Amino acid sequence: MLNIYNIMTGYSIFSSDFKNSKGRMFSEQEDVNRSCFMRDRDRIIHCSAFRRLKYKTQVFVNNEEDYYRTRLSHSLEVSQLARSISKVFKVNDDLAESISLSHDLGHTPFGHAGEEVLDKKMQKYGGFDHNFQALKILTSLEKKYFEFDGLNLTFETLDGILKHNGPVKKNIPNFIKTFLTFFDGNLKTFGSFESQIAAICDDIAYNNNDIDDGLYANFFDIEELEQLNIVQKALKTIKIKKNDVSRLKYELVRKLIKLMLDDLIKNTKSNLKKFNVSSATDVNFLGKSLVCFSTSMANEELALKKFLKKRMYMHPKIRTMTIKAKRIVSDLYDLYNKEPDLLPKQWINFENDEEKHIIVCDYISGMTDKYAINIHKKFFDLYNF
User: Cα 381 to chain center, whole Å?
Assistant: First the structure.
């Protein structure tokens, strides 16, 4: 790749340059020691919603066992992969990290099970989407500053979260329209190079680390995984010592991640040449994701996802937890809408029925697994006085 680096900044010419950021909705004095994207990352790490990810479901409900991944450990793993890939392409790793760390902030307790319930309950009021909710947290629900609600992040971070899975085709809520209008944002374009890195690193992280969790839970074994071509390729590169069989799964996961990352890097470099990308704008208006696997690796990943869905996500133990989780979220939603005075005082701030439903939804979506379980026991366990 020739002539792709900006000599003045040290970043690639298709990187999001912090010096040319669109800035923040509320004007702030710049920090002499940290770029705007570094400050975004720091604010995300220190916000309440980020801490709560520690007790939110990835696949297993948080109180199952300490070994399994939570939304917090998953977000950190995505961030680590995104930083590494960003350095390969010399794009802004601080921005990629900010997007990676915050992409799951809007998840409900019990992950997608809770989201499914809230989306159904909220259909009359626009539904519920965890990606949109992450932006609501970052633009209004976090209340830590005197001058504004939210974290007042840069446009590039907010836009990267919004589009980390591509252009937005859903109807968007007003709180997203507000910041898009302010920055003259475009829903039809693809996200930045950094947001595309965060998106595919999300896939790499959860696919491979779900293998680790699934093996630990004895939902399947390595022999069953061998039906997948990519697993066969990884195992061929591993030299197993008789006394180290117990470490095989860790070596397998590392090899699988490396196979995916190597393919991603090679294919993305090829795309940069093929499409003659020469600016960050080119990335946005290319009409397709630039940071992606080769066709063969994409097919391998799809086969892995199908395996995990069948053998892990649809496992009776997970389905049982899902049914219980949905019941908890549904019961709490109905309870707080019927008896809104049971909400914490700071949440009782609505003027009509629609606002009440939205506030109840925001409150429940911010709960951790543990808190939702305990609150449900408090109100629905007749013997718990």
Answer: 34
What is the three-class DSSP state of 57?
strand
Query: CATH assignment of 33-317, given 1.10.3210.10, 3.80.30.20, 1.25.40.10, 2.40.50.140?
Result: 1.10.3210.10
pLDDT per residue over 161-197, tens digit each? 999 888 998 889 999 999 999 999 999 999 999 999 9
- Print burial letters for 228-259: b (CB count within 10 Å at least 16), e (below 16): bebbeebbeeeeeeeeeeeeebebbbebbbeb
pTM for the model stands at 0.93
Task: Express each pLDDT in 218-260 by its tens digit.
Answer: 999 999 999 999 999 999 998 876 566 678 999 999 999 999 9
| Per-position DSSP letters for 322-380, written without gaps between them | HHHHHHHHHHHHHHHHH-GGGS-GGG---SSHHHHHHHHHHHHHT--HHHHHHHHHHHH
Token readout for 128 is 């519920």
Burial (Cβ within 10 Å: 0-12, 13-18, ≥19) of residue 26: exposed
For the chain, the structural domain boundaries read: 33-317, 318-380
CA 325, CA 56: separation in Å to the nearest integer?
Answer: 12
Residue showing tokens 């093929």? 274
Following CA atoms 375, 376, 382, 385 in sequence, which dihedral angle do they give, to the nearest 10 degrees?
-10
- Cα 75 from chain centroid (whole Å): 6
What whole-number distance in Å separates Cα of residue 136 and Cα of residue 347?
15
Quick one: 156 exposed, middle or buried, by C-beta within 10 A (0-12, 13-18, 19+)?
A: buried
Half-sphere exposure (Cβ direction) of 27: Cα atoms closer than 13 Å = 0
Number of residues assigned to the chain: 385
Residue 223: count of CB within 10 angstroms of its CB: 7
Q: How far apart, in Å, are the Cα atoms of 67 and each of 221, 263, 308?
A: 17, 29, 18
* Strand partners of residue 5: 12
How is 63-113 classified by DSSP, letter by letter?
A: TS-TTS-BHHHHHHHHHHHHHHHHHHHT--HHHHHHHHHHTTTTPPTTTHH
Instruction: Locate 64 and state its tokens.
Output: 């199952």
